[in-house]
């Protein structure tokens, strides 16, 4: 393998990602190979990203959720995801660390990127998450969670703010951690086969 072929991940990027994600060199190299096969340009466009989400949620409308997730991952705001952003995103969303997941969730809900959440942003993301839930599962939801509006109201209630106040990242994380139901409201996990 000695000769660094143009298709290999650079040593600098490998070191950077090993330090910032705790993934192994083998994992990063494997993902890089898959990434370059799937995205020969080295970048994922919003449309390609939406197509990936559509495969994960075949029964649902994942488009608006995918757009928000893409925005939260596109940290340099160039309108595409490069390999580094992709691996960091994998790390933040798959890590066992709850605080990492909640930091990412905060960036997802912070639609305008100003460092605070408004109730309208919470509603916008709750609406996108609600669209992920297949129609046949909606009747089984708790009565205070069976519309996007009710979910946003319930989630906002955990932060103990009035409708015109804002929520900072620390308050968001504390509010979610302190309420067992809150975690369910900031994500949608398809029902595992029973």
Percent of residues in helices comes to 55-70%
> Class by helix and strand content?
mainly alpha
The number of helical segments is 10
Total strand count, please?
Answer: 4
Q: Termini separation (Å)?
A: 45 Å
Beta-strand portion reads under 5%
**Largest sheet, strands/sense/barrel:** 2 strands, antiparallel
Query: Per the principal axes of the C-alpha atoms, what is the gross shape?
Result: globular
In spatial order, strands of the major sheet run 1-2
> Spans of 5+ residues with little confidence (pLDDT < 50)?
1-6
Order of helices and strands: HHEHHEHHEHHEHH
Mean pLDDT: 90
C-alpha Rg (nearest Å): 18 Å
Structural features, described:
- The chain is mainly α and 194 residues long.
- It contains ten helices and four strands.
- The chain has helices at 11-21, 25-38, 46-56, 63-73, 83-94, 98-109, 119-130, 148-158, 169-177, 182-185, and strands at 43-44, 81-82, 116-117, 167-168.
- The chain has a two-stranded antiparallel ribbon with strand order 1-2.
- It is globular, with a radius of gyration of 18 Å.
- The termini are far apart.
- Residues 1-6 have low confidence and may be disordered.
């Amino acid at each position: 393998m000695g000769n660094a072929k143009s298709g290999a991940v650079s040593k600098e990027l490998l070191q950077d990602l090993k330090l910032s994600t705790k993934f192994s060199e083998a994992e990063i190299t494997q993902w890089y190979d898959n990434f370059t096969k799937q995205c020969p340009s080295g970048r994922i466009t919003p449309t390609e990203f939406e197509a990936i989400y559509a495969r994960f949620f075949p029964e649902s409308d994942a488009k608006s959720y995918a757009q928000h997730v893409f925005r939260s991952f596109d940290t340099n705001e160039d309108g595409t995801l490069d390999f580094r952003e992709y691996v960091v995103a994998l790390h933040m969303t798959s890590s066992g660390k709850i605080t990492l997941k909640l930091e990412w969730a905060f960036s997802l809900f912070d639609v305008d990127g100003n460092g605070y959440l408004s109730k309208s942003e919470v509603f916008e993301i709750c609406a996108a998450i609600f669209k992920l839930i297949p129609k046949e599962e909606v009747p089984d939801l708790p009565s205070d969670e069976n519309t996007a509006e009710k979910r946003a109201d319930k989630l906002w209630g955990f932060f103990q703010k009035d409708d015109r106040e804002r929520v900072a990242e620390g308050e968001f994380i504390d509010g979610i951690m302190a309420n067992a139901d809150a975690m369910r409201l900031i994500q949608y996990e398809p029902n595992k086969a029973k």
